[in-house]
Here is the input.
Amino acid sequence: MQLPSALSFLVDKAIDVADGEAFLTELAARLVADGIPLAGAALTQAAPHPIIGRRTWLWRADTGDVIEALNLTGPVASGPSHIARDWLAGIGSGIVQEDFAGATSDGAILGWVASRPLHESETTLLREVARFAAAPLALLAARSTLAALLTAYLGRRSAAQVLAGRLRREAGETIEAALLFADLRGFTDLSESAEAKEVIAALDAWFDRIAGAVHAFGGEVLKFIGDGVLAIFPIGERDASAACDAALRAVAAARAGMDHLNRTRAAQGAPILSFGTALHLGEMLWGNIGTADRLDFTAIGPAVNLVSRLEGLCRPLGHTLLLSGTFAAATTTPLLIPLGEHSLRGIAAPCAVFTVPPIDRVPPQ
Here is the structure.
């Protein structure tokens, strides 16, 4: 006896789909080919993510399009997704069928709505689909969990390398980018005078502002180093000038975010948080280093050394943002202020240093 097209897909091919969107698109199309009068379909899965509780993919039969909805409210409650149920009820006959794809209520949920009431045999097929879908959806969830965990702890670039199987010490890749190094001021004093939970809360708030700004303008955070951040704005799809301009906009956004945070902290009697930032343009090497069985992705090279040393000049020069001469030559931002050439520890040649108005000067120590 020949299996319905949908069940054949689940048995033979579903294990190879890339994500929930592809899974739902193919499965729904197969069900339509089997004669099920679908108007829409939905797939809801728990999302192992720091801020996303659940992901729902919604498919329309009239267009074949899939849209994704995210639940950002925290822990996932067991039971059907009200997002999926409400959406499905709005596009079909109003009769929605939802089935757990697995033996327990904390697994994936498949939802269906038809253009007419379903016959008993059609309802039975949809329930069989949910039963056969349990295994491939569990595998899809496991892959998603691994990717989310690696991205959360390693960052997007390193996670992609690990998922691709780079598990040995290697020379790595050369990345041309605008480099950003930012460091929180007064963190040592804060950590010695405040309770541990207050210190962690301050660090989290700082990283939210700087990393959020970096990501908003197309950058990537490579490393959190104590209370410091190393980020890049890669050159490739955009040229060097665009990358440098994006880095400057990210610094401005981070500064605005920190100003807002500091107003709240001041109202609570908490100490103000300030930071210094350096920007440079150059090449860095990004690769696996460490022992044979304990590795870390690390950025090395003259450009990394220079941007970190340059940030160390923020306090002596009385500015919170410094640009290298190489960066200044590439950016389209006008009215750069030259601060002269300065020697950097461990760097052979003096570095031309610039800043950008208006920049608040570092208050006297």
Q: What stands out?
A: Residues 74-80, 359-365 have pLDDT under 50 and may be disordered. DSSP finds eleven helices and 13 strands in the chain.
